[in-house]
Amino acid sequence: MLALICSEAADGAENTTTGWSEFISDLFTDEWWVFLVTLGIVLLGMIIIKILTKGKVFKIRTILKVAINCIIAFILLFMINTIGSIFGFVLIPKWYSWLLIGIFGILAVIFLFVSYFVWPGLFVSES
């Protein structure tokens, strides 16, 4: 992945029509569908639990807070990857790490960032 980023950055530097913002948006769209599916699964699960328990476990406000937290976590992950690609690392979450991001949001992204250095390859793919 890192080699791909470096080669695309070099291509972007040679091609004046492709700017840095287009390069970053390409990286963003690569992971967008995984995030959307994970967020949908988590929110659907919370809505089903809300319906089955008649609102005793989750309120609408809680579901909205989880959704906003997950969206901010994805943006944080995107920003870490953008800045990290300059320094030579990229966080590519494994499939089960996306579930952590969907449930815990920002805390999961911070955990993935730390686990990249402490346990390389366990929660994020090595690039």
Short description:
With 127 residues, the chain is mainly α. Helix content is 76%, strand content 3%. It has a two-stranded antiparallel sheet.
Describe this entry's structure for a reader.
It is built from five helices and two strands. With 127 residues, the protein is mostly helical. The longest helix is centred in the first third of the chain and has 33 residues, at 20-52. The protein has helices at 2-14, 20-52, 60-87, 95-104, 106-118; strands spanning 92-93, 124-125. The protein has a two-stranded antiparallel ribbon.
Q: How is the secondary structure organized here?
A:
Elements: H1 2-14, H2 20-52, H3 60-87, E1 92-93, H4 95-104, H5 106-118, E2 124-125
Antiparallel strand pairs: 1-2
Proportion of strand residues = under 5%
Strand order of the largest sheet: 1-2
Distance between the termini: 5 Å
**Rg over CA atoms:** 17 Å
Q: Fraction of residues in helices?
A: over 70%
> How many helices?
5
- Tally of DSSP β-strands: 2
Q: What class would the helix/strand composition place it in?
A: mainly alpha
Biggest β-sheet, characterized?
2 strands, antiparallel
Attribute tags:
127 residues, two-stranded antiparallel ribbon
